[in-house]
Each structure stands twice: as C-alpha cells, then as structure tokens.
Specification:
The chain has about 350 residues and is an alpha/beta fold. It has nine helices and 16 strands.
Amino acid sequence: MPRVLMLYTGGTIGMQPSPQGYIPCAGLAERLAAHLALGDPYRLPAFDVIEMQPLMDSAELMPVAWNRLVALLESHWPHYDAFVVLHGTDTMAYSAAALSFMLGALNKAVIFTGSQIPLGEPRSDALNNVVSALQLAAHPATPCEVSLAFHDRLLRGNRARKVRTQGLDAFDSPNFPWLAELGIGVSFPQPSALLSGLPNFAPIEVDDEAVAVLPLHPGMSLRRARALLADESLKGLVLYSYGVGNPLSFGGELLDDLKAANERGVALLNVTQCAQGEVVQGAYATGAALNQAGVIAGSDITLEAALAKLTVLLGRGLTGLALRDCLKSAVRGECRHTDQ
C-alpha cells in the first residue's frame, strides 16, 4: 500500500470557532485520526501528517509560503509515494498553480484539498475531501502532476478556480476537463498528457513588487493605470481585459504606456475576465493593437495561473525572450497550447 504525506498549511479544514470567528488551530492530525477511528471503511493508504508553522488563513498566504511548501516536499520526497496538501480555499488555486510551475515535471502526485466547512462542524465536507484526496493519492491512474481534489472531482492544479463562495462544489476548471471523477467508482476521462520526471525543488526569489494585475473596468482611471505601468519595480503585469482580450484604449494613451512598459522589459500577459473562453488578440481592432504594444495573449489561462506563472518565472530569473517564450507556451498544461 502506498505511503502518503499530508502537509497541513492551515485554512478552513482545520479551523475551530473563536469569539473572533474561525481561526487556524493545531492538532488536526489527532482530530483526523479520531474521525477515521471506526475501522477503515475507506481503505485508505498509510499516511502521516505534518503541520506547517505557523498555520495560516490562506487569505494571508504570500509567495514565500510556496518556497516553504516546496522545501518540505523536497525533504520528504524520497520517503513517500504521494503528497496531499491541506490548504485554505481562498488561495488554493494560486498555490496549486504556483507549485505546478515551481516543481515542473513530477514522478509522484501532489494533490491539494481543503474544505468549505471545518472538520467536525455540522455538514462539514472536510472528511469527504480528505478521504477522496488520500484515495486518489493511492490510485495508480492518478496523474503525476499538481492537482486539486474537491467535491468528488480532481482538477489540474493550474486550471482550477474557486467558483463558489457558499457551495460545497467550490472549485471547477472551466476551460479544461476534470482529471478524475469520484462516483460509485473512480473514473479518469483522459490520461494526463504532461511529461513526468524528477521535480525541481529550487526556491524562487520572492519580490512582492515585481508582479501586478491591472483589471479593466468602465470608469477606470488612466492616471492610476499609467502610474502602475511606469513603476520601475514592475517586472510583470497581468492585463485583466474584456471578452476576447479587448482593452480600453483611452485614445491610444494606455496602449502607448503598455508599449513603453514592454520596451522597458516588463512582461505583459493578457487574460480574459470571462470564466470560459480564451484571449484572441486581433478579433477586434482594440485587441489587435495590443500585438503592436508587445502584449502576450494568454489564451485561456486563468487569472490565478497567470499571476503564479509570472511570479515563478520572474522568481527563477527569466527575462527577455526566454520569459516571453515561456509565457506564450503551455509550460505545464495551463493553457490551450501543446502540453510539454
């Protein structure tokens, strides 16, 4: 039977009530053991639990925590057959995407999960999600990649999004099929097309000033947009645009600033605000102008994956053409390009 390591980072799954609301609490391993103590009807693999310190609400999570997670995986990689990361739902899609880019090709599964309701609370989904993640971790058909298990479905980590605040089916991958579905049995609709290999455990250099998101909206301030683009600390920008990638032009002024930022070396990645579909720069004149400005069309990449990808690539020191080539291609199946 495979051995699985569970890394508990914090989040709703292990929280307990306090006068201030739910807060992260230690001792999840003991509470899980108590819930699973009545024999083992789930036929789970052997697993250990390590609690990261400090535990945190995932809304407080920053990229430095990605380095801590990768370092823990590196130290335990030879001793376990698969890994489950218990994570808060607010930023789980960001972390799953980031680790997919940081680790690269894998020879073992890394599965994120969490819950909408804490373990032990009425109607909690925590135990079902943990059991599903452990069963998938032990399943020989589970792909060796970073994935996300939630509400009886397994999603590619860098394709997942949190799509519901209240529903127990909180995560989906709107532009990519589920990797697996748990019903009466476990079905895998299609094999993973990602190459397997030994992971890269190198940390990224964390620079909280390097990456930003510019969301477009009616009535937005050109002055503020220009100030962001002119910031010398900016190295990568996600342009969160309308429809198939259309921007406001402000009579060409914003496009001029985007072009100037590109010429200064800022990587500009265009991502649609739509839940489904992809960026097609050139379908409209406003979008076509982005090509001349040096903006890279993000295809159907999610906002979470785009931000994580930029952060990781810049944190690994990529610049210039090497950075642009990676942003144009599917590094780990995160967008509609040939998987590598």
